[in-house]
Design goal:
Largest sheet: 4 strands, antiparallel
Structural class: mainly beta
Helix content: under 10%
Shape: elongated
Number of strands: 7
Order of helices and strands: EEEEEEE
Length: 84
């Protein structure tokens, strides 16, 4: 049984990622990314990463930013999400 390819969506567009392939993202480069399964069968992937108290996560396509050390979500203009 073969595994379906996943579609990796980044700021650069869509890329198919098949079984045995990987994707890597450099630190300090805000590029919101996600995987989409466009097949009719289940897909499994392994995600590996590190987190520290100084990490941030940027989701530019939905105007959201997470500061892990703060535990707060903010919009690009700095306002809290949800509003406080």
């Amino acid at each position: 049984m073969s595994c379906p390819a996943l579609t990796l969506v980044t700021n650069a567009g869509e890329t198919h990622v098949g079984a045995g392939e990987c994707a890597a993202f450099p630190k300090n480069t805000p590029d919101g990314h996600s995987f989409i399964n466009k097949s009719q069968t289940d897909a499994i992937y392994l995600e590996v990463g590190t987190r520290s108290g100084k990490d941030t996560a940027t989701y530019p396509d939905i105007d959201l930013h997470l500061v892990v050390g703060e535990g707060s979500w903010r919009h690009k203009d700095g306002t809290f999400y949800p509003p406080r």
